[in-house]
Specification:
69% of the residues lie in helices and 4% in strands. It is mainly alpha-helical. The model has no long low-confidence stretch (mean pLDDT 92).
């Protein structure tokens, strides 16, 4: 535990705090109304804090477990990597996560601005930002899709973004696929802004 707090303090705090707030909300449902993103309200300039707080809660144990497992595998690794690259690495990681969370919901707010019955929650947008930031640095790493199917990260990234676009238009599963897509995109953009050389590094992995 001490090793995580010293080496990856931002990821440690996010990980612990998100788990704690999510579990607390499971048995205190009144917090869902306070924390969930409601695009109809946000588009009118109200409850703007939910752009952030919606990422601190999850729908159920399965939703929380999936997001936190993904964050555990890539969030801690990304912060450690950025900290090795720059003295500002910890701050850069925090920016990627927080801005990834907030900006990933901008498209949803616009799309659902006239839908008073639509709500969204979960840290998926931020976690996609973290995952795709890491993919830029190591595109040929192997991922276990659904913990079973081996696939190189670059291929997973392409398929994932394509699926998000399709699902946003066609799926009726209650999942905010737009947040996944925009989170991934902003994770890539922010990483390139911090490290412009990562584009050349990414290309060279296939040379």
């Amino acid at each position: 535990m001490e090793q995580y707090l010293i080496g990856t303090p931002v990821a440690s705090i996010i990980f612990a705090f998100t788990i704690a707030t999510s579990i607390y909300t499971f048995s205190n449902h009144q917090f869902y109304e306070r924390f969930m993103l409601h695009p109809y309200t946000v588009s009118k300039g109200k409850q703007l804090h939910t752009l952030l707080t919606s990422g601190l809660i999850h729908r159920d144990w399965g939703h929380l477990l999936f997001n936190m497992l993904t964050f555990y595998f890539f969030g801690f690794s990304l912060e450690a990597l950025l900290a090795n690259l720059s003295s500002w690495g910890h701050l850069q990681f925090a920016i990627i996560y927080v801005l990834g969370l907030v900006l990933s919901d901008v498209g949803t707010v616009y799309k659902e601005r006239n839908n008073p019955s639509y709500y969204s929650l979960g840290a998926s947008g931020a976690i996609c930002a973290v995952l795709f930031s890491f993919i830029l640095f190591d595109p040929k790493m192997m991922l276990g899709v659904f913990l079973i199917i081996p696939m190189p990260a670059w291929l997973f990234g392409i398929l994932f973004l394509g699926y998000c676009v399709w699902a946003s238009k066609n799926a009726r599963d209650g999942i905010n696929h737009d947040a996944h897509f925009y989170g991934a995109v902003f994770g890539i953009v922010l990483t390139i802004l911090f490290y412009p050389w990562v584009i050349q590094h990414f290309i060279e992995q296939f040379a």
